[in-house]
Amino acid sequence: QVQLVESGGGVVQAGGSLRLSCAASGRTFSAYNIGWFRQAPGKEREFVAGIAVSGAITYSSSGSVRGRFTISRDNAKNTAYLQMNSLKPEDTADYYCAAGQISPPIAAAYYTYWGQGTQVTVSS
Asked: CA 67: distance to chain centroid?
């Protein structure tokens, strides 16, 4: 089992920044790919970014976050991060981190463990 706890969400004005954290406990954090997903009200959960065990990084193919969001991980701290800059109202959503062992880490089905989510609201 891997337990994941997200933090760092909140309310921010458009153009602002937030850094989300995903703290893991349980099994070896470094053995898992980590992904960030988001779900806006009335919409399906969507992949935002993933970082593999190797450190390889993938961002959403939609291009909606490329250049603004940065995923990283610190295996010594059992924590992954999502740095979000230049936030837009359309980034408003619940953000979830997930852990899995299937690569490439780009789909929700490839993840086994999920956190409870943290809410991000971007005001215009």
From this structure: 15
Query: Could you tell me if 114 and 4 are in contact, meaning their C-beta atoms sit under 8 angstroms apart?
Result: yes
Count of Cβ atoms closer than 10 Å to residue 42 Cβ? 5
Dist. CA 48–CA 36, nearest whole Å = 5
* Residues contacting 61, CB < 8 A, separation 6+: 106
Tokens matching residue 94:
């619940």
Using the 8-state DSSP alphabet, how is residue 64 labeled? S
Q: Output the furthest CA–CA distance in the chain (Å, rounded).
A: 41
Identity of residue 5 = V
Residue 33 phi, psi dihedral angles, 5° rounding = -70, 145
pLDDT digits (tens, 9 = 90+) for 6-61: 999 999 999 999 999 999 998 789 999 999 999 999 999 999 999 999 999 999 98
**CA atoms of 5 and 74, how far apart (whole Å):** 15
